[in-house]
Amino acid sequence: MPILSVLKTLIPGPAYQVFKGHFVRGVGFIAGGTALGQAVVLIASPVITRLYCPEDFGIFSVYASLLGLLTVFGSMRYAFAIPLPKDADTAANLLALSLLVIFFVTFIISLFIWKAGDHIVLLLKIPKLRPYLWLLPVGVFGASTYSAFNFWAIRENNYKKIG
Predict the structure, then answer these.
(1) pTM of this structure
(2) What percent of the chain is helix, strand and coil (3-state, nearest 5)?
(3) What is the DSSP letter of 130?
């Protein structure tokens, strides 16, 4: 039995109309995509834990933490404004501005890693992280660009691609 017909029998009158809307369907696509992604991680976990030792997971955790901190500066939060404007031209200009800021911030992070990479490794006391530091600017660029285009997809109500 389709879920909409179950909801129709459980929820009377106008309240059911909320579940027929484009927004709720979009949320369903996003939630389904997230659940599918989590299922893939759960299924792959036993294989991954056999391939890598705990030390590798520690290095990855530090890398992921640095990436998370630096990604905050990726687009300087201009990407968050992309869904807000009423007209498409302003939103497209915000997307272009976000991408330009991402390029600039990635360049600055690349210079910083190139010049101060050894100092970062000494400060964190993880010398095995040094060969992977060059991936930080690549990761910031990728995560920030993904975020900007994700907000564009939200603006365009393209929830299937997000999910």
Answers:
(1) 0.78
(2) 80, 0, 20
(3) G
